[in-house]
Amino acid sequence: MKLAGTTAIALATWCTADGIAGADPAPAPPPAPKQVIDGDGTFAVGKDIVPGTYRSDGPRDGAACYWRRIGGDKTLDSAMTKKSQVVLIEPSDTAFRTDRCQTWQLTECPPTCAPVPQQSVGLPDVLKGFVPQARPPAPAPAPSGG
Predict the structure, then answer these.
(1) What φ, ψ does residue 138 adopt, rounded to 5°?
(2) Residues 6+ apart with CB under 8 A from 76
(3) What is the distance between the alpha carbons of residues 54 and 102, in angstroms, rounded to a whole number?
(4) Which residues are registered as beta bridge partners of 66?
(5) Strand partners, 79
(6) Is 2 helix (H, G, I), strand (E, B) or coil?
(7) What is the pLDDT of residues 101-126, one digit of tens each?
(8) pTM (predicted TM-score)
(9) Reduced to 3 DSSP states, what percent helix, strand and coil does the chain have, rounded to the nearest 5?
């Protein structure tokens, strides 16, 4: 019976914690989609990035920022700009392309939100006659005698 005990020890040594020796280990799960796009490239929606509303402060290094939403083989929306941008990446989009833009960050901002407005400057006097101006509110009616 000593032989049976030796065989059991040899069999136990041949097996490892991962299963039978020589078996392929289980593949690692794919990384979770990101909520930040911090470089140039084309990113698969749902795989590389989560869908949602993203905001970028505009171009890097004074260049023009280019972005494109892709659905299959079609461009759904795109822009080349030097201004900050807000883009809604839909769950049905297949990819998002970005070049020379600052980091895109997923935001709670609704899709209709606009980029942070720049400080406005008053109209030149020459244009004031052509642009409707706000009217002051009408005076309140006089109280009636009671």
Answers:
(1) -65, 145
(2) 69, 70, 90, 93
(3) 12
(4) 80, 99
(5) 67
(6) helix
(7) 999 999 987 656 655 444 434 444 44
(8) 0.59
(9) 10, 35, 55
